[in-house]
Amino acid sequence: MAHSESRTSAPQLTSEPKPPFPKQHQEAPGIEAELDPQPRWRAPLYREAGKLKGKVALITGGDSGIGRAVAYLYAREGADVAINYLPVEQADAEETQRAVQSVGRKCLLLPGDLTEPRTARELVEQTVRELGHLDVLVSNAAHQARKSSPEEVSDDEFDRTFRTNVYPYFQLVRAALPHLKPGSAIIATSSETSIFGSEKLPDYSATKGAINALTKTLASNLLERGIRVNAIAPGPVWTPLNPSDAGASPEQVSKFGSHAPVGRPAQPEELSPAYVFLASDADSSYITGIVLPVLGGETTG
Ligand code: NAD
Ligand code: MG
C-alpha cells in the first residue's frame, strides 16, 4: 500500500526535513509534483481505525498539500472523498485520486474555480449526486501573495483573497446544510496568521481571522442541528502555497519554516490527523467552535 513507505524510528518532531531547502519558486497555484523535497503526506506511522467508515467528505484544495494528506487519511479511515482544485492542478489531483483508490475508496475529481459564485453549490450537488451523501466538509482552499507594504494590496487583490478564502467557506456551508445530518462535521483551514497577524499578508491574515469568527458563529448556530464546526490553524507547512507565493523569493522559500520554534515547517502528514480528530464523532463529539493551533511549539497565550 502507498502508506507502507519505510521510516526510521527517530521521533517525527526532530526528524522531518529542515531548512535550508533548495531555492525554488513556482507560478501560483503551484504544483506539488515540482516541489523539492517532496512533501510527506502518506503518514506511514499513523494507524487507522475505521473512524470515518461509510462517510463522504468534500475537500477543497484536495489536490495537494494539506488537502491531499487529509483526503488520503480520510480514505484510510473509510471515507469516500470528493476533491476540488483548479483545472491546472489536474495532475496533482490525479495523484491524490490514485492514493485514495489504492486503499479501496472512491475519489471524485471536481475541478472548478471557487471565486465563481456558483462553484460551491455545484461541488456540493455533484458530491451528493455521485457519492450519495455528504457528512464532512473541509473548506481548505486559499490564495496567498505577500506584499511588502499595505499600499501594494490593490482592491482587486484584496477582493481576490477574500473571494478565494472566505466567501466559498460560507457558500459551501450554505449549500451543504440541506444534506448534513446530525453527527456531520465542518472543518475550515485557518492559519497562524489569524492569531498573530502577518506583516506582509494583510489581506490573507484578515481572511483567516474572518474564518475563525465564522467558524465560531456557525458552531453556535448549528449546535442544535448536531453539526460541529471547527477550524485548524497551521503554522508553516511544506506545500505548494508558499513556494508559489508571488511575493516570496527563492531565497525566502529555502528558509521556509525556520521561524517556527521547532525550526522547520510541518509536513502535511503532521496536520492531517487533526482533521480526522475533528471529523470523527468518536474523538471530538464535545468539541465545536474551536480553532485548533498546530504550530510547532509556538504558544498562543
Ligand atoms: P496548497 O497549495 O496545496 O493548497 C491550496 C489549494 O487552494 C490549491 O491546491 C488550490 O487547489 C486551491 N485554490 C486556490 N485558489 C483556488 C480557486 N480560486 N478555486 C479553487 N481552488 C483554489 O497549499 P496548502 O498549504 O496545503 O493550503 C491549504 C490550506 O492551508 C490553505 O487554506 C492555507 O491558507 C492553509 N495554510 C497553509 C499554511 C502553509 O504554510 N502551507 C499555513 C497556514 C495555513
Ligand atoms: Mg494544489
From TrEMBL:
Glycoprotein is among the record's keywords: no
Cross-referenced SUPFAM superfamilies: NAD(P)-binding Rossmann-fold domains
Region (Disordered) residue spans: 1-40, 243-266
Single GO molecular function: oxidoreductase activity, acting on CH-OH group of donors
This protein's UniProt keywords: Oxidoreductase
Gene3D superfamilies the record matches: NAD(P)-binding Rossmann-like Domain
Family from the record: Belongs to the short-chain dehydrogenases/reductases (SDR) family.
Annotated protein name in UniProt: Short-chain dehydrogenase/reductase SDR
Record organism: Opitutus terrae (strain DSM 11246 / JCM 15787 / PB90-1)
Native organism taxonomy: Bacteria, Pseudomonadati, Verrucomicrobiota, Opitutia, Opitutales
